[in-house]
Design a protein that fits this description.
- The protein is of the alpha+beta class and 172 residues long.
- The protein contains five helices and six strands.
- The strands form two sheets. A four-stranded antiparallel β-sheet has the order 1-2-6-3, sandwiched between helices. It has a two-stranded antiparallel ribbon with strand order 4-5.
- The longest helix is centred in the middle third of the chain and has 18 residues.
- The radius of gyration is 16 Å and the shape is globular.
Amino acid sequence: MTLIDTMLKRRSTRKFNNEKITKEELEKILQAALLAPTSMNRKPCNFLVVERRETLDDLSKCKNHGADLIAGADKAIVVIADTMIADTWCEDSSIALTYMHLMAAELNIGSCWVQVHLRDKDGIDAEEVVRDIVKIDEHYRIVGILALGHSDDIPNPHTLDDIDKNKIHFLV
C-alpha cells in the first residue's frame, strides 16, 4: 500500500467491535507516534495508553459532545505535551495524532481523533477534566485522544475524485 492509499483509506470510526487490538498492532501505532516530527526535534509529547474500561468510560464523558465513542473503544491514547519543553505542543501533538491515525488505517484498525483542546464539559475546560482523570501536572497540555478498536463499521475510503482542487491557489 502506498502512502496516498493509506491517506485515502483513513476514515474516522465511531463504532467498534469486541476484537482486541494486539500488542504488535499497538506497538506499531505507538512507533508511528514516536516517529512523528516535532519542532526542533524537542519531542514534548507523551502517549498515555488507556486500556482500563473504567478510565475509558470516564474519558468518554470528558466533554459535552463527541467523546462518547471512547467508551466503546478497545484502547485510547491520550496525547499529552510538556509545555516546559516546547511551545509548539499543539502542532507537535497534532502531527503525532495524525501519524497514529494513519498507522491505524494501514493496520485496518478503526480510529477516531477526539478533540480535547478548546472544548468543555459543562463550562469546565475539557483539558482540565482529562488532566484530572489521567492525573497529570498542569504544565502538560492535551490536544486530543485517539480512540482505537477493530470495527465492522469503517467507512469506505475516499477517492482522488473527492479532492476539492478549488482549495489550491497558486501565488505568482
